[in-house]
Amino acid sequence: MTTSELIPPDTEGALRDYLRADAGVQVRMAQRVFFGATNPEYPCATLTRIGGGGANMANVDDALIQVDVWGEVRDKAGCWTSTAAVLAALRALAFTPATITGKARLHSSGATSWAWLPDVASERSRYSITVPVTAVAV
């Protein structure tokens, strides 16, 4: 198989679907995991690629993803509870890779960092998580 026949995986889409399907995340934020959202219902999470790229083969993607977990205004404790659910789901990928049908097989070493970063203008609660994710096309 040549490189031109290999299709890069949908890393971000697979991670979004994985988090939406996680029972702990669903309890806190239902299916509210987005790439970006205008006026979403809270709590929710947004995913943004902040680094990484294709590995040695076109069907492998080593991505660095930022997951922002958003809560209600000035609700650090509630936002942390949602963040803990996301962190647990990400940690589980280190032990059990997940296959997202039609998208990718996900692997991760778990979150490398998290930080409290509330929105200055709105005072909306936010924790920001950085996580490396390797995806292999399926």
Structure description:
By secondary structure, the chain is an alpha+beta fold. It contains three helices and seven strands, in the order ααβββαββββ. Strands 1, 2, 3, 4, 5, 6 and 7 form a seven-stranded mixed sheet that branches. A hairpin with a 7-residue loop joins strand 6 (113-116) and strand 7 (124-136). The longest helix has 20 residues, at 76-95. The model has no long low-confidence stretch (mean pLDDT 90).
Distinctive features:
elongated, alpha+beta, about 30% helix, about 140 residues, 7-stranded mixed beta sheet
What does the secondary structure layout of this molecule look like, with pairings?
Layout: H1 11-21, H2 23-29, E1 33-34, E2 44-54, E3 60-73, H3 76-95, E4 98-100, E5 104-108, E6 113-116, E7 124-136
Parallel strand pairs: 1-2
Antiparallel strand pairs: 2-3, 3-7, 4-5, 5-7, 6-7
Helix pairs in contact: 2-3
Write down the overall geometry: elongated
The overall pLDDT average reads 90
Share of helical residues: 25-40%
Q: State the assembly state of the protein chains.
A: single chain
Poorly predicted ranges (pLDDT <50, ≥5 residues)?
none
N-to-C SSE string, H for helix and E for strand: HHEEEHEEEE
What share of the residues does DSSP label as strand, in percent? 35-45%
Largest sheet: 7 strands, mixed
Structural class: alpha+beta
Number of helical segments?
Answer: 3
Number of strands: 7
N/C terminus separation: 14 Å
Q: Whole-number radius of gyration?
A: 15 Å
